[in-house]
Amino acid sequence: MSKWIKKDLFESFQKEKIEEKDNSSSGSFIRSNLVWDTPEKGTVEQPKVYEGRFLPDPKGEFYKRYYYHFWQSGESWKFVLCPKTHDFKNYCPFCSAVSKLYNGTEQDKKQGYLLKRKEKFIGNFFIVKDPRDAEKDDENKAIGKVKIYEFPAKVEQKLKNEVTDREEGYGIQIFDPSDNGRNFILKVLSTKKQEDGRTWPDYSSSTFSRAQTSLGSEEEIDEFMAKCTDLGDYIKSMEVPKDKQVELLKNEFLWEFVESECSKHGYINLEESGSDEKEESKEDSFDTGKKEEKKESKKQDEKEEKKSESISIDDDVNDDDLLAELDNM
């Protein structure tokens, strides 16, 4: 085992993954400098092939999961890091609103479906091969760089299988940059077209290399290991302030579903908002009918707009929009 891997942390991580049930119910970063462009898919028969090595972050973390809500509102995409990322017991107003929408009308259920919680996994990834480099200049090539790789559950399952299988799995080798380590060969096929013409990435043929290889000399490994990103800080950088979450809830006409709950979890300051609400109440008393009529009309327009949209909720299909939205945070 090499000096760059902390065995005790891996064993703790290994135990966590073994016990984890499958499918169970503030830093400042410039994302374009950190994140590996989402691997593109090939065809149904011919995959696009990428290769690299997963690496632990400066604190010895191997990879992490985060939950988020991501939806299209008008012409823009909205992103909120779900508080359940840090602890599933945490309150999330969007999860709560989705739960209530699922108990409503068919249109409510459609809205809930689009707003429902999604998941991603992140890890540091040393890039050995990226076929897209052929069209880039040397400065913009990915090969030889450490990037944050944001990957879906189907890829995470590949890692998890190697971590949890104590007898046949490669275990700690899949994170080791030394000659004890193994590269991940990411083969991205395309699924067959659905009736609506869409296709999805297929990672089923991806695998870890049978051969053990080093990523470089000891000095070279030290150099790029120093460039690994703290995964906890990275996730923290995606957090959306509570006041911004409240604004988004109001824009989607969800505030009335969760207002009382939010007040209990620090999303609004009742003392500060009380005076504002009183002033609004005075103004409303003069023109309540027209205001309610306008609100209802706007709400109906928004719902009709959503009804006509063709929005994919697949993590990989929406990655470009997701990254663009996060860049603006």
Q: What can be said about this structure in brief?
A:
The chain has 329 residues and is of the alpha+beta class. It has helices at residues 7-19, 31-34, 93-101, 106-115, 153-164, 218-225, 231-236, 242-251, 255-264, 270-308, 319-327; strands spanning 48-55, 64-73, 76-81, 118-129, 146-151, 184-190, 201-202, 207-208. Strands 1, 2, 3, 4, 5, 6, 7 and 8 form an 8-stranded antiparallel sheet that branches.
What best-fitting shape do the alpha-carbon axes yield?
A: globular
What is the name of the CATH architecture?
Answer: Alpha-Beta Complex
Cα gyration radius (Å):
23 Å
Order of helices and strands: HHEEEHHEEHEEEHHHHHH
Q: What is the percent of helical residues?
A: 25-40%
Number of structural units classed as domains: 1
Strand content: 15-25%
Biggest sheet character: 8 strands, antiparallel
Average pLDDT: 83
> Strand pairing plus helix content: what structural class?
alpha+beta
So, the CATH homologous superfamily? Replication Fork Single-Stranded Dna Binding Protein
Would you state the CATH class?
Answer: Alpha Beta
CA(first)-CA(last) distance: 40 Å
User: Could you say what the CATH topology is called?
Assistant: Replication Fork Single-Stranded DNA Binding Protein
